[in-house]
Every structure is written in structure tokens, then in C-alpha cells.
Amino acid sequence: MPGYLKRTLFAFTAILSFASFILILVSMSTQKWVTGKILCKTGAELVNATDPELVKFMGEIYYGLFGGGKVRQCGLGSRRSRFTIFPHLVKKLNTALHVVIILFLCVAFSFALVSFGFCILNIIKVPYRAIKGPAGIALWNVLAGGFAALAVTSFVAAVKLHNLTERIANFRENVFHFVILDEQYECSFWLCVASSAVHGVNLLLIPISTIHFPALKTKTEEANVTAEDIMY
């Protein structure tokens, strides 16, 4: 591949790597990973609420990696509250798993920055074989995308297998018990998924830079030298 095309390709992969870094930071800083509807089961059972009356006992919840909020309705109107995961709520969750998710994301955006740096180094042609070439960029993209994917998978496992939403909804609820009616992943979660996908795109683009196209050679006309040319 010609040098200018290779530099253009590395510039594009650098932009994608930096975009992945931004996506992870935004997803970690926002608190809309999961939203759901919660039902105050205790309150509904106390008054034997029927289907039309259950609306008065339905609230909402949202949360991310570091905090969230909920609207609880137990027949006496809605009450809003906010909470933080650290330092108290994390003790009610699967602490190791939650901390591992955050660590995976921290490692992922660190490797995304390293991948960005390697792309820049290859654009300006730094003469060090250890850090020059597509193999180095591919390595860091594999690590960054892999850790982001592990974080996403671990979070899904926490939500589905460890009843994360229900544990958060019932945090510091001594009288009422809440059950989850519906839960869905929101934009912050999908930003993290997109970050992992970006590195997958980079892994598809990087091998293109190793393709060697045949050089185009112009055919030179053979000069016919005659005796008259030699004389003059």
C-alpha cells in the first residue's frame, strides 16, 4: 500500500481509538445504564390492590456504575430519592463483580489511549521497530476491545444473574419490598458496547495496511541509435 494511503488509514484508526476512549468515559460518568419499573409489593398487598389500582404502587428506577435514583410509590404519592453505589450500597451487591466491571472499563480506556498513541507514532514514522507497524496497533485494539467486552458481559451477568436492579431497589427499605416489573438497558450501556465494536472495526481495517499493491511501471521506449545520431 502506498505511504499516503497507509498514513490515512492509520489516521482513521487513531480517530476511532480516541472515539472509543471518549465513549467509555461518557458511559462511566453517566447514570443511565439501566432503567426499570418497580412495584411496591408490600403496599399493594396491604390494600389488596387490583389491576387498575396497581398504578398507584408503580415507581421507576435508574442507575449506573456509581449511583442512580428511584421514584417509589406505596399508595401515598410518589417520593423521589437518589443514591450512590459507593461506599454503602456496594456492600449489598456482589462487591467483587461490581469493582471488576469498573476496573475492566478503566483498563479498556487506558488501552484505547495506547492504541491511539501507536497510530500517531505510525503516522509520523517513528523509527523503532518495537512500536512500529500494524501488529502493535492490532495488539492494543484487541486488549482494549476485549476488556470493554468483558465489562459489558460482567454487567449483564450482574443484572440478570445477581438481580442487581432488585437489590438496588430494596436498598435501605425496611418496611416495603419492591419487585421489578420491567428493566431495560439505556444509552450509557450501549455506549460501552459501541466502544468495544469500534475496536472490532479497527481490527478489520489494520490488515488492509499490510496489503502490498504491485507497483505500476511505465514502459520506456527503446531508443534506436543510428550512425547519423552518433555523428551529430
Automatic annotation (TrEMBL):
Q: Which GO terms describe its cellular component?
A: membrane; stereocilium bundle
Bilayer topology: Multi-pass membrane protein
Where located?
Membrane
Q: What coarse category fits the chief subcellular location reported for this protein?
A: membrane
Q: Which stretches are transmembrane?
A: 9-28, 96-124, 136-159
Supply the alphabetized keyword list: Membrane, Transmembrane, Transmembrane helix
What GO biological process terms are annotated to this protein in UniProt? auditory receptor cell stereocilium organization; sensory perception of sound; stereocilium maintenance
Family the entry assigns: Belongs to the clarin family.
Name under which the protein is recorded = Clarin 2
Organism for this UniProt entry = Salvator merianae (Argentine black and white tegu)
